[in-house]
Specification:
19 helices, 10 strands, three-stranded antiparallel beta sheet, 7% strand
Length: 481
Amino acid sequence: MASNSNRFSTYTSASGGSESKNGEPKKDMWSSMLDSVASGKRLPERNLLVMGGTVESQRDFIESLSNNELRRNFDRGNKIPPVANQFALGYTYYDLLDADHEEWMLLLRTVLLDLPDESKITMEEVMSQWKERGRGGILNLDGTTATAATEADVSLPLGPGEWEEPLGLPLCVVCQNSEKMEHLEKTQSWKEEEFDVVLQFMRTILLRHGASLIYTAPSVPSQLQTLVHSSLGIHSLLKKQPLKPNVIDRDKVAVPPNWDSWGKIRVLREGFDVEAVSEGWSIDLETKFPPPGKNKIIENGTENGTETVTVAGVEYDVDGYEITPGSAVTMFEDSVRNPTLDALQMAGRDTYSTKLEVETMDTQAFLGSQVEKLEVYKQKIEEEGKASSPTRNKKPAKGIEEDGRQVNVSDHIGPVQFNVGGIQVDADDMMKRLQDRQAYASSPEPEPVDDTAQTQQPIDPEKLQDFFANLMNRKVGGSKS
């Protein structure tokens, strides 16, 4: 023990010397470590409040802010379930959350209203600066100062419906898993009009809070990192990525703060009442939080059917929220149908999954019913043929309508054409040719002319000789000349 202590004292005394072998002052190891920790603490910090969604969706959101995209995709594909019960020796844990994910806006508003006056004044100052970001004035969207002088001179004023309900904090709404819109389109028969109405409602409501909106998908690159960093005032000196607004691609929507307006919302789909939705959202923000609850309302009130309950003259829905006229939530529920309710109705309609949705008639039963109709039609045709004259049988086929009139079948079905060996054939033209051929075959052939009856005159050989002699004389005379 003594030798160990002597060695320790010798090491400390040697390390505590002020000069090294070369005469330079030695650096203390502990002081360098403390300096590195202190420099790390001097880095700017940002606080991010994540609300809504599930634990998995919040974890995916935090991972999406990381720069290591390849590592994040690899971890997402190789996730192992947290349940470790192999050989009955493992254990696991679950997160039980009691937060109300649907009414987080009312919860946040209630908390902010209970803050002291000093905090409210500070938040108002922050919001007044935030309103000027990205409007062509002195500040850019990320909080940096504008470089161009022309941009610093002009600042756009606030439009109608903007920053009517500031929360005191920069708000960014992230809609994850935007690829599921294709699933709604295929299974629930959603159309572009319904997706546009949902987007118009969200943009109108977020415009009152000065918030931003973005749609993300795991397999599609998005501008989420750029949007969140600009909201937090984080900017890179090496590489600047501009934030590009996008409201055309339904799965890549990106609406930066201080960019949207009522005019841009109306352009997306005609017939949308922006003013009514904006005023209705202000009515919804005045709703009491937390709500009384479904069980308490049913105990103290009377049910009005299956959807509303009345308590002391006030009407509530089945979830315990007060129904107010002109509410934006009520207008949204009336305009957009809930896909989860459609799925429940489809599930409750057919209890057994093996049951056919549409039952068809048996093939033999269908053919049997058609035979009876054909027999009746055949009897009508035979009766018509017996009563008609022989010349009438040569006319085109006729049918009998319900009122007893006789009409040509060709008047109903029109020209009949079909393809034979790549050649387009007209049935009417072919029938006409066959009829012409039969008429030509049935007509009597003309009698042949008898050539033996004609008398032949004898040929005179002298005349032939004179004829050839004249030809020879002409040939000789022509050569001499």
